[in-house]
Write a structure and sequence with these properties.
single chain; mainly alpha
């Protein structure tokens, strides 16, 4: 999409920022919820930690995927394979 529609760079950048904000909010919420699991016992705590790790891996994977796409777009702009839209600088 980025090579055909350069405005996709703006959407990808926005997705990166929103996912970073969502990750920060998720970590903050997990810290608050961690206090509730202190008396619940090891099985509940282990399930909470496993879910937290999977959620963080998915969110970080999204950030990396979009970051790589934007990076490749700017590299192809520098090589002259794609001409960026006005307002997008590489």
């Amino acid at each position: 999409m980025l090579l055909r529609k350069q405005w996709g760079v703006y959407l990808a950048g926005m997705n990166i920022l929103v996912t970073l904000a969502s990750t920060g909010t998720g970590i903050w919420h997990a810290m608050i919820k961690m206090d509730q699991f202190q008396g619940a016992g090891p099985p509940a705590m282990i399930g909470f930690i496993i879910g937290l790790v999977f959620t963080l891996l998915i969110r970080l994977g999204l950030i990396v995927a979009y970051g790589v796409a934007v990076y490749q777009f700017f590299r192809s702009c520098q090589r002259g394979l794609v001409s960026p839209s006005p307002g997008i600088r590489g």
